[in-house]
Amino acid sequence: MLSRLPAVLPVLAIILAVLPTGPARAAKCGNNASGFDAWKAAFASEAARAGIGQRGLQALAEARYAKSTIAADRNQKSFKYSLDKFMQIRGAPTIVAQGRKRKARNANFYMSLERQYGVPAGVLLAIHGMETGFGGFMGDSPVVSAITTLAYDCRRSDFFVPHAIGALALIDRGSITGGTKGAKHGELGHTQFLPGNALKYGIDANGDGRVDFYSQADALASTANYLRKKGWQPGKGYQQGQPNFAVIKEWNAASVYQKAIAIMAAQIDG
Question: How much is the pTM?
Answer without folding.
Answer: 0.87
